[in-house]
Amino acid sequence: MHITLTTWSLEQTSPADLRPARVPEGDDVTIVRAEVPSAEFSRFLYTAVGGDIRWNDRLSLTYKQWQEIVEKPGAEIWVAYDRGTPAGYVELDPQPDGVVEIVYFGLIPAFRGRAIGGHLLTEGVRRAWDLAERWPDREATKRVWLHTCSLDGPHAMANYERRGFRLFDTKVEEVEESENPGPWPGAHG
């Protein structure tokens, strides 16, 4: 069966474009960089966050391919924790000419709707803008971009726009419908 998939690409071209979200109430949420490249942890985050919204493009990658992604110089994963439990993440992919893509961003389903997403996105965008401070061989960031699609969560686009991202491209295509893979079989029921 085929479905219509709309993909929107959004960008910021200056750190001044970022409109920060409020920090969630209390001191329960922390955002920490996963500094040790770990294919296992990266895959866990990917499946836990994207399992119910059809993230499946990386599921067929080998361990070696996952490890290459997390070991790429300048690649970073920032994780939101709620009282010690991973709640979501932002994955930054450094690209040539001072461009940083937010490749993946999202929350594990149990943590959605609690004002964590705006805060995590704010911090992820800040870390994209100051990436060269942590990676001296990198050129200063000139552009931060991401894409979202009609399969993502219902609040994704609004969150990106509230943080100051601007639409620069829209693509509509017919694609083969896939099942929600869940973090493991049967978990998305």
TrEMBL record:
Residues 29-182 form the N-acetyltransferase domain. It comes from the Bacteria. This is GNAT family N-acetyltransferase. It comes from Streptomyces narbonensis.
